[in-house]
Structure formats: structure tokens, C-alpha cells
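Hi R.,

Here's the chain you asked about this morning:
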Amino acid sequence: MLKKSFRWSISLVIFLLLFSLEGHSQIIKGQLIAGLNMTQVDGDEVYGYKKPGLQLGLGAMIPFGDKWDLSIETIYNEKGARQKAQYPMLADSTNGAYSLYLNYLEVPVLVHFTDKELITVGTGFSWGRLITAREYEHDRQTNTDAQNGVYNPNDFNILVDLRMRLYKQIKFNFRYAYSMAKIRTREYSTNTGSGSTWSRKQYNNMLTFRLVYMINEAKSDQNRRQLP
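And here is the predicted structure, written out as C-alpha cells:
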């Protein structure tokens, strides 16, 4: 199911990229994407965007109307959380260090509005499939992986997107993403021996800083202006 879904999405994006290069009348724009994620997981008792990760992919933008575009992407996305040891002087099992690595293949779909061909704002949704997962508590790896059901294999996100032209076909892109459904529910307990426990739902929370190289953008915008 996973391989079939992403094979379809990658094939669609590649087709649109190739289609955008053919002929004067075609207006589809291509995107080559590379970026840095700063991530955290809300509900994991670890705070701050301290886990860096890569975001790599490609996409296509389909113009409609005067200033609007619909985009679809296929991306590799690294998420998770990190906390350094809180009690580094302790040699036992409770130094407080925590690391989580969640790697997804994702398909974002967004609607964009461009103002004066300089700034583009957009919003949309994405579906991600968990491909690898690793978790470390107090510097020791747990039994968490992508197949044992600790984390939801699907991650549905709402997206907010802002783009600004840096130079010719290169744009700087800031994107915010947040899980619409929980990725995990976890029980926590105190270390005091009191038996107190509590439950927390967890959600991916991510800031992304990307560079987007646009393919065929000038021709696409010119064609759009010439349309009746």
C-alpha cells in the first residue's frame, strides 16, 4: 500500500515536471526542494524545537486564476524530538536524555496566493507515512520502531507556507506543520515511588526552512498573463 501510494505520487510529480517543459502553452511549474526542519513532539514532556532534520523532495505547481496555484509535492521528512542529559553527573539510568527520530515519506497538497510575483502565501494538508523510527531514553535505545505500533504509521498535518524570491528561480520558503491527529498516546509516571501516572497525547510540531528552485516559472507566469 505504502509503496504503491508513493510510487503513484512520485510518478505524478515527475509527469507534471516533464509536462511543464513541453511547449509554449503549458503552464505547470516544477519545484526542487531542500530544507532544514526544526522539530518537537508536543506531549512528550520534552520542550523546544531542538531536533534538526532534513526535508528533500520535488513538486509541481498548477496555476489557476490570476494569482493562484495548486501544488503537490513528494518529500522525505525527518521529524522527532531531542533533549540533552539533564543530570549529566549521574551515572545511573536517569540522566534525562531523550532522542526521537521519526522519518516520513509525505505528500503535501497546498493552495497558494502570489502577490506581485514576490511573496507567496499558502495553506494545505499533507499525508505522511512513517518509514523508520528510533527512540532513546537516558541514552539507551528503546524497542520503538516503525512497525511495532508504538507510533501511528500515518501522520496527517495542516500546513502554513510563506515564500519569498531570493534570486531569479530560487525562493526562500518557511513552512509550519502540525499533526491533525495524535501520533502516540503515552503513559508517564513519577520517579518518586508514589505511583502517580498520567496520559499524554503526542503530536508532531515542525518549523521548516527551505530553498525551492522553480522550473519553468517565468514561462508559466507569462502564459498565465496571456490567457483570456
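One quick note: The CA atoms of residues 174 and 209 lie 5 Å apart.

Cheers,
M.
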